[in-house]
Design brief:
Layout: H1 2-14, H2 25-31, E1 41-44, H3 52-61, E2 70-74, H4 80-88, E3 94-97, H5 102-113, H6 121-139, H7 143-156, H8 161-173, H9 177-190, H10 195-207, H11 211-224, H12 228-241
Parallel strand pairs: 1-2, 2-3
Helix pairs in contact: 6-7, 6-8, 7-8, 8-9, 9-10, 10-11, 11-12
């Protein structure tokens, strides 16, 4: 869609980014041979010649390119299931449905380009120590102190789903539901089939009046349930909401 390409190019250039465009999948693949590699790829799913999902898969399968963040866009493939497939099957770092707001595109581009590097072994060790301390403090009935320890844990390793989940639990205990929602959402973003995070997130969405979000999250929880009995219990709850 040339008009969307032009609009994005104009907005991203105005925001200070150097932008290169490709009209189809074959041209995109040729441009990806550039050295040094690009800092980010904004990729439409419905590219002519080579499908966008195939391009994404090739990027993530290439040792030279796999570190490049890929944000996929589509007006055809909609809903959280497609977003999850884009991440899990093809390796996309983010997924945006059309129509979109330019402000959302710019925010996500900035987040991906400025994302912190993967933690070093030393940082992971520090994160694990803070995580274990946070769990100990939760068990000791000290959620405020646990929150502080777990915040240190996710600061040291922002890619730890278990760290964000434990932080969400502590935030919920101290009565900070909206920050808890953010932490649960981050845990699910990092591990899409994290059943406990999905179940708790659905509870909080419902508690705060986000009924549609609760339904969507319970639909995901059905697929992530660890066993048949749990799956049926979630389905029953979902039917009641519907």
């Amino acid at each position: 869609e040339p008009e969307i390409v032009h609009m994005l190019e104009k907005a991203l250039t105005k925001a200070g980014y150097a932008v290169d465009t490709a009209a189809d999948g074959k041209a995109a693949e040729q441009k990806l041979k550039a050295d040094p590699p690009y800092d980010l790829v904004l990729l439409d799913a419905m590219l002519p010649q080579i499908h966008g999902f195939e391009i994404c898969s090739r990027i993530k399968g290439d040792p030279r390119l796999r570190q490049i963040p890929v944000i996929m866009m589509s007006a055809v493939y909609r809903g959280w299931r497609f977003a999850q497939d884009a991440r899990e099957t093809f390796g996309a770092d983010d997924y945006i449905e059309k129509p979109f707001h330019l402000s959302d595109i710019l925010r996500r581009v900035q987040e991906r380009i400025s994302a912190p590097p993967r933690p070093s072994p030393e940082q992971r060790d520090a994160a694990d120590r803070s995580y274990q301390e946070g769990l100990r403090l939760v068990e000791a009935g000290k959620p405020d102190e646990a929150r502080a320890a777990l915040e240190q844990s996710v600061k040291a390793d922002p890619f730890s789903a278990r760290g964000h989940f434990a932080l969400a639990q502590a935030l919920r205990q101290i009565g900070d539901p909206f920050r808890a929602i953010s932490s649960y959402e981050r845990a699910v973003e990092l591990r899409p089939k994290h059943f406990a995070a999905l179940a708790n997130l659905a509870d909080l969405y419902l508690e705060k009046g986000f009924r549609r979000k609760a339904v969507e999250t319970l639909e995901r929880a059905v697929l992530a349930a660890p066993d048949g009995k749990t799956r049926e219990a979630v389905r029953t709850r979902l039917v009641r909401l519907l």
